[in-house]
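User: quick one, sequence for these C-alpha cells?
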C-alpha cells in the first residue's frame, strides 16, 4: 500500500484488497460465481448488469455534451 492507502479506514482497506484480488486473479475467476465474505458491518451485494440490460446507465453514458477543456495545473490556489 502507498502512504495514502495506509490512511484508509478498515472498510476501505478491505474493499481495496477485494479489488486487488479480483484484478490480479481476473483470468482465473472469469466466468465463475464469486462470493466475498466479510466480518464488517455492511451487507453489500454487487452484481454485474450488462449495458443493454441497464438502460439508464446505458443512456447516460451516451449523452453527448459539450466539454470545455480546461488545462491541468500543477499548483493549487493560494500557494
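Assistant:
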Amino acid at each position: 500500500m502507498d502512504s495514502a492507502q495506509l490512511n484508509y479506514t478498515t472498510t476501505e482497506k478491505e474493499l481495496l484488497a477485494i479489488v486487488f484480488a479480483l484484478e490480479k486473479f481476473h483470468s482465473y475467476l472469469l466466468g465463475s460465481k464469486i462470493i466475498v465474505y466479510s466480518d464488517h458491518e455492511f451487507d453489500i451485494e454487487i452484481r454485474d448488469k450488462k449495458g443493454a440490460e441497464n438502460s439508464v446507465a446505458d443512456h447516460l453514458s451516451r449523452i453527448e455534451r459539450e466539454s470545455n477543456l480546461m488545462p491541468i495545473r500543477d499548483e493549487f490556489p493560494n500557494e
